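Example for tutorial group B:
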């Protein structure tokens, strides 16, 4: 059981930065894998990044590697998505997510993790 509240979205110019936050709560929330997804208008949900509460490993979509960084602060029950060098194609509703690993690969993408808990979403708009 995990409850997620995400926030931090807004409007930013291309090349700018934003940091999204997701506060997790619930029974054994720290045992879940945490991730970020986004959904642009007219498109399907896209995996962006994932990580565990412990360790340093993280997984990223190719479209955001080198620009986005997922991190966490277990003392605040919060996972972050630092977004740098934003592009217009990054415009989307961003969702925090939590789930359980399905495999033992050590990857946190949505193939290896069954993400099933979701935040309400926060809008990110990037203008040229």
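The residue assignment follows.
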């Amino acid at each position: 059981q995990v409850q997620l509240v995400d926030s931090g979205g807004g409007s930013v110019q291309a090349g700018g930065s934003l940091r999204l936050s997701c506060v997790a709560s619930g029974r054994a929330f720290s045992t879940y894998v945490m991730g970020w997804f986004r959904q642009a208008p007219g498109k399907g949900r896209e995996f962006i990044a994932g990580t565990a509460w412990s360790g340093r490993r993280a997984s990223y979509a190719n479209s955001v590697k080198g620009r986005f960084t997922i991190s966490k602060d277990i003392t605040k029950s919060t996972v972050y998505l630092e977004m740098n060098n934003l592009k217009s194609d990054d415009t989307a509703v961003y969702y925090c997510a939590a789930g359980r690993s399905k495999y033992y690969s050590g990857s946190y993408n949505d193939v290896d993790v069954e993400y099933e808990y979701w935040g309400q979403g926060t809008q990110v708009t990037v203008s040229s």
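The chain has a mean pLDDT of 95. Compare this with the pattern of hydrophobic and polar residues in the output above.
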